[in-house]
Amino acid sequence: MQGRAARDAGDAPGNTPLVGRRKALQEIGRVLEAAERGYGFLALVGEPGAGKTRLLNELADAANARKLPFVAGRAAEFEQEMPFGAVVDALDYRLEEQAPALPPNALRLLGTVFPALSDPADPAQLAGGAASPDSQVARYQLHRTVRHLLEDLAEPDGLVLILDDLHWADDATIELLDHLVRHPPRARVLVAVAYRPAQATPRLAALVDAAGPQGVRITADPLTQSEVAEFLGPGVSRSRCESLFKASGGNPFYLEALSKMGDGTVPAGRGGAEPHGWEDGVASLTEVPPAVRAALQVELSALPPEALLMARGAAVAADVFEPALAAVAAEMEQDAALAALDVLTGHDVVRPTAGGRFRFRHPLVRHVAYASTAAGWRLAAHSRVAARLAELGAPASVRAHHVVRSARFGDREAIGTLVEAARVVALQAPATAAYWLEAALELMPGTAEAGAGGAHPDRIELLVELAHVQAVSGHAEQGRETARTLLGLLPAEDTVRRARTVHLCAVMERQLGRIHEARALVLDELRRITDRQTPEAVLLRIRLVADRIQRIDTRGSHAVLDSIPESAPEWGPGLRAAVASMRPMVAYGRGEVEEAIRYAQRADQLFSAASDNDFADCLDCFAWLVFAESFLGMYDSALRHAERLVSITRTTGQTFILGYMLAGQSRVLALQGRMAEAAAVADEATAVGRDLRSQEVLAYGLIQQCLTASWMGDHDRALQAGDEAVANDTGSGEWWTHMAHVARALAIIGAGRPDEGAEALVAACGDGTQGLDFSTLVICAETLASVRAAQGDQADAAQWADIAEAIANPALTGDVGLARLTRAHAVRAADPAGAAALAAEAADLLTKAGRRPEAGRAELAAGLAHAAAGDRAAARERVRAAADTFEACGMRGLHAQAVREQRRLGVRVPAPGRAASAAGGREKLPFGLSPREHEIALLVVEGCSNQQIAERLFLSVRTVETHLSRVFAKIGVTSRVGVATAMNRPE
C-alpha cells in the first residue's frame, strides 16, 4: 500500500544495482523490527543522488515483506510553498480508499488539508476553515488530529509513513513532524524521512535527535572505488571505472548519469551538450558537479523534439503530473502528448505512479527539464496551467502556485487569487500564506486604490494580514519589518491603526527577545498622541504595564496604571475590561491582596459583560487576569476566563498570544489536581511556542510541562522540559526566566536528587526579590523545609517555615495551608504529634482552597507524623486519604509512595491495575522483579537514597546496591530516574 509517490524502482527501466549499502540495509531491518513493537523515527540523510530514495524503496519493500503497510510521498522543488505537500502526497490516496474512523469534527478539520476528506458541501472547508468560528483552530489541534489519523490508519497491522526530499518541505510539514516526534502516535507507526543535510532547516535536522531513543539516523555515504567497479560491472575497463569514480565522487545517481555516455565522453563541464541556450538555467544546480549537469543535458537533448517539449510541460505542470495538464503546459494535442509520454517512459525520464499520473525518475531530472525552458515560455506555460485549473474549478490554493509564477504586474485577477489562497491556508500554513501575500503585494501598484471600490485590495489591510501571518508562523523578524513598513505608510492622524500596528509590532519584538526595543517603540508612538486617555493611547499604555508585570516591577506598573482611569466615554467594553484586568496583578505584586481580590471580582464582571468581538485589540492583557487569579486562589474564575480567552484567541487567529493563555490554564488545572488536562494544555502551549520560534512563549509552556510531569511522576520528561526551559532563559530577569529555574529545581528534587535540587531551588529563589510571585515563594519554602527535614536539618527546616509564614497572606487560604505544612515538616522530628496536627490543619485549608495535590501531600505528612507518634490508626486513615487523592489526580509517584506507607502500616493494598491474587497464588510483580527488588524500586520512586533504603529495610548498603543493579537490568534502565519513571508508568 502506498501514496502517490513513485516507488516502482524495482520495475523501472534502467534500475541500477544496489551496492555498498549493506550496513544501511541492516539498520533498516532493525528499525522495522522495532517498529513492529511501537513508534519509530528514521532519518535518511545524504547529498543529491546519494541513493536516499532507493533506500526508502528498500525500506518499503522490507515493510511489505513483513506485511507492514506503508504510504509514501515526497516534497517537490518547485512546489515548496504547498501546505503539507509531502504528507498529502503520501496519505491522500490511502484516504480515498479507506475513510478513517474518526469523529466528524476531526474529519472536517482533516478535510481542510486532505482533498480526499474534503466535503464540497461544507462552506468551512471551501473557505479553508475561515467560514466558521469553530474551525479557527490552532495548528496544534490539526497536528494532534493527524496523529490520531495515523493511529487509526495503523490499525491493525501498523503503518510506515515514508516522506522523501523533505529539504523542500514547507514549514507546516516540518511543524507537523516536530509534533509527531515529541508526541508520538500510540501505535505501531514508523515515520521515515529523507533529506539533503546542506539544504535542511535546523528544525528538520533536529527531528531525529528530538525523537530520542526512537530516532535513528542513516547516512547515505558515497561509494568507494571498489563499489563503483561493482556498480558498473565487469564489462567496464579499470581506467574508465577510475575516471567515472573521480568524476562522480562515488555518487550513485551521478555515476549512473555519467555511465550512460559513451566511453571517453565523460564531460568536464558543459561540453557534450547541444547548444539550446538553457545551460545557464541548468547551472543553477550548484550542488551537482558540472560533469553531471552536462550529462543530464545530453540525456534530454537526445530526446525527440516533441518528447522534450512534453518533458518541459510536465516539469511546469506538477511534481506528480497528469498527462492532460502537462499537455496544456506544452501546448500539445492530447494524442501527440500521449505519444511523447510513451517516449519519455521508454527513456526512463518519467515513471508511472498511481491514479494514471507520472513523475520524473529523479528530482534532478525534473530540475534540468524545467531549467531547459526559456523564461518567456515558462511564464506562458504556468499561465496556461493556471487558466486551465480555473476552468476546472480548482480552488485558489491550487492555482496560486502557477499564478505566482506567471502573473503580470497590476493583474487584478492574479492578485485576488493570491490573496484568496493566502486566506484559505493562513490557519494551518501561515508561512505559505505570507509567501502568497508578499507576492500579491509585489504585483500591486504603489498607488493602488483602496477598498472594495478600487481596482485592487487595500494595501494597508494586506500588510496588516501579512504581519499577522508572519507573526504566527514563527517569522517574527519579517513580521516586525512588515509592521514597521506599515507604520511608515500610515499617516500620523490615523492613530487607531497606528496603535494596533505598534501593539502587534511590540508583541513581535518581545517574541524576538527585544524587550527594550518593544518598550521604546510603544513610548515613541505615545509621544505622538496628545490625549493619553483615548482608546488607542490606553491600549499602548497597558502594553507598558504588561511589560512591567513581567519583570515584577510593581512600582513602575502601579505608576502607569494609577494614571489610567477606570473608564472614559470613548472606551469600548473590551478596553474597560482590559484595564480592569491589569489591576489585580499589580495590586497582588504590591502585597495588597484584599484589594487585588476586589479588582479581580470587578474585572470578572466587566469581562463577562463584554462580547468576544470587544477584545480584538487587547486580548493579550487578559492573560494577567488568569495568572493573578491563580495566585489569588480564584481558580474557578481563572479557568472560566482562560477557556474563553483560548477560544477567542483561536477564533481571531491571534495564536502569537495563545501560549500565555494556555500556560495560565495549565497552571490552574495542575493546582486543582486535574493533571491529565493540565499536561495536555501544557503540551499545546509548548507546541505553540515551538511554532512561533519564541523562546519566551516556549518557556511558558515548558515550565508547565515540567511541573505537571513532575507531579505525575514522569521524572524523565519533567527534567527534559526543565532543562529546555532553563536553556531558553534570555537573561531578561523577567518572571518566567526565574520560574524556569524553579520548575527545573522542583523536578530534580522530585526525581530523587534532593541535595542538587535544593541547591538549585535556593539559587532560583535568591533573597525573594528576584522576580517571583509570593505563591511560588511559599511553594519553594515548603519544598525546601520538606527536603531539609528529611535530611535531619531541623534548624534549616524551621528557617524555611519562618519564611513561608512571613510570606503567606492571611487572606489566601491555600498559601496559609502550605505554610502550616511547612511548619509541620520542621517540627516532625521533635514533636510528631504536633506535626500531625499541623499537617491535618494544612490538609483542611488546602482542600478548602481547592488545591487537591497539596492537600494530598499534607494528608501524607499527617499520616507519617501520626505513625512517628505511635498513632497507627490515625496514620492509616490519613495515608489512605492521601493515596485516594493522588490516585484521583493521576499523581503516580506520590500514589506509589502512599501505597508503600500503607503497607508499612499493615494495610493490604493490591498492586495497581491488578485484581487481588487468587487464593494461594502469588502476586505477579512488574518487570519480573522479586518482592525484595520491587520493595527497593518503590523506595527509589519515593526518592530514598541507598542509605535510607538500607535503614528502612534493615539491610546493608552493599545488599541494597546489589538488588538495585538487578532492578536496573530487569527494567532496562541505567539510572534511579529511569526506575522511578518506569515504575510510575501506567500499565
Topology:
Layout: H1 22-35, E1 40-45, H2 52-65, E2 70-74, H3 85-97, H4 104-110, H5 123-126, H6 139-153, E3 159-164, H7 171-182, E4 189-195, H8 202-205, H9 207-210, E5 215-219, H10 225-232, H11 238-248, H12 252-259, H13 279-282, H14 290-301, H15 305-317, H16 323-330, H17 334-346, E6 350-352, E7 358-360, H18 363-371, H19 375-391, H20 396-403, H21 412-425, H22 430-443, H23 459-472, H24 476-489, H25 495-511, H26 515-528, H27 535-550, H28 554-562, H29 573-589, H30 593-609, H31 623-631, H32 635-652, H33 658-671, H34 675-692, H35 695-711, H36 715-727, H37 735-750, H38 754-765, H39 774-790, H40 794-807, H41 813-827, H42 832-849, H43 852-868, H44 872-889, H45 892-904, H46 931-941, H47 946-953, H48 957-971, H49 976-984
Parallel strand pairs: 1-4, 1-5, 2-3, 3-4
Antiparallel strand pairs: 6-7
Observed structural traits:
987 residues, 49 helices, 7 strands, mainly alpha, 4% strand, two-stranded antiparallel ribbon, 62% helix, 5-stranded parallel β-sheet, disordered N terminus
Secondary-structure content class: mainly alpha
Q: What gap, in angstroms, lies between the N and C termini?
A: 33 Å
Strand order of the largest sheet: 2-3-4-1-5
Measured as a percent range, the helix fraction is 55-70%
Question: How would you describe this structure to a colleague?
Answer:
With 987 residues, the protein is mainly alpha-helical. It has 49 helices and seven strands. A five-stranded parallel sheet has the order 2-3-4-1-5, with helices on both faces. Strands 6-7 form a two-stranded antiparallel ribbon. Helix 20 packs across helix 21 (412-425) and helix 26 (515-528) packs antiparallel against helix 27. The longest helix has 18 residues, at 635-652. It is globular and about 100 Å long. The model is unreliable at 1-14, 126-136, 264-283, 448-453 and 913-922 (pLDDT under 50).
